[in-house]
Amino acid sequence: MAKKKQQTAGTPAITALTASGVAFTTHAYEHDPAHPSYGEEAAEALGVAPEQVFKTLVAEVDGALTVAVVPVSGSLDLKALAAAVGGKRAAMADPALAERTTGYVRGGISPLGQRKRLPTVLDASASEHATVCVSAGRRGLEVELAPASLATLTGAVLAPIARP
Length: 164
Fold this sequence. Notes:
Layout: H1 12-20, E1 25-28, H2 38-46, E2 54-61, E3 64-71, E4 75-76, H3 78-84, E5 90-92, H4 95-102, E6 120-123, E7 132-138, E8 141-145, H5 147-154, E9 157-159, E10 162-163
């Protein structure tokens, strides 16, 4: 993995990463508001396989907000997410509620440095990669780090929650 790269204008995610001391690399790219998918745009811009770029989704499991981190190449299996946290029902959270709770805007929600720490589930496929990319807290800014570091910093459970 690449050495830690400092970011001058830090987001809460980058601030949390810097404070943790884990190795990470930031990747900035020009965000195109017309692109239909934030995650696919990031993968294309960075020249990284979509299976290695993960999107952060906020869902409600039995009424409690829960973060799901899944590859941009797939989609979230809500039943699997509910099972991973011992719940029965899951649905996508209201986008405005997700933004208020995490402190990030849609398309830039990072699993790191959220305003309120939420239960987090990282798709098990992350462990197949030496590093993964997730939002650094702003559209057009990704952070690359080891999946184990991501899981540790977010307190994530690893479970198969994505479907192709």
